[in-house]
Design goal:
Elements: E1 3-7, E2 10-12, E3 18-25, E4 33-39, E5 46-51, E6 58-60, E7 68-73, E8 78-83, E9 92-99, E10 116-117, E11 121-125
Parallel strand pairs: 2-11
Antiparallel strand pairs: 1-3, 3-8, 4-5, 4-9, 5-6, 7-8, 9-10, 9-11
């Protein structure tokens, strides 16, 4: 059984922090490129961050650079997204996704390369 499950979402005050977790079952996250995407109501799904499998190189959307950090914990078979200095515009459903291609590198340009997706977790940033 192959599964990706996001957790850690919730209500956060502006300026606050949350850590999202993407946990895999049935496969090893460490050998795949993993992306975090988000989708706000009425908007397209956008790439937030990703981490490559080949060398661990990471990418971030300009809107979150300096505030978000993506990381792997291969012992726990998880990928996390640490979100700091949260803003109301960060409010969205956050998804993690795996690219099963043996290419190694990751992209946040769009969701197309990612083959397998979690169900999403809601993050709401509001006073």
């Amino acid at each position: 059984q192959l599964r990706l499950v996001e957790s850690g979402g919730g209500l956060v005050q502006p300026g606050g922090s949350r850590r999202l977790s993407c946990a895999a079952s049935g496969f090893r996250l460490g050998v795949y490129a993993i992306g975090w995407f988000r989708q706000a109501p009425g908007k397209e799904r956008e790439g937030v961050s990703c981490i490559s499998s080949s060398d661990g190189i990471t990418f971030y959307a300009n809107s979150v650079k300096g505030r978000f950090t993506i990381s792997r914990d291969n012992a726990k078979n998880t990928v996390s997204l640490q979100m700091n200095s949260l803003k109301p515009e960060d409010t969205a459903v956050y998804y993690c996704a795996a690219d099963f291609r043996p290419i190694g590198s990751c992209t946040i340009a769009g969701p197309r390369p990612y083959n397998y997706w979690g169900q999403g977790t809601q993050v709401t940033v509001s006073s």
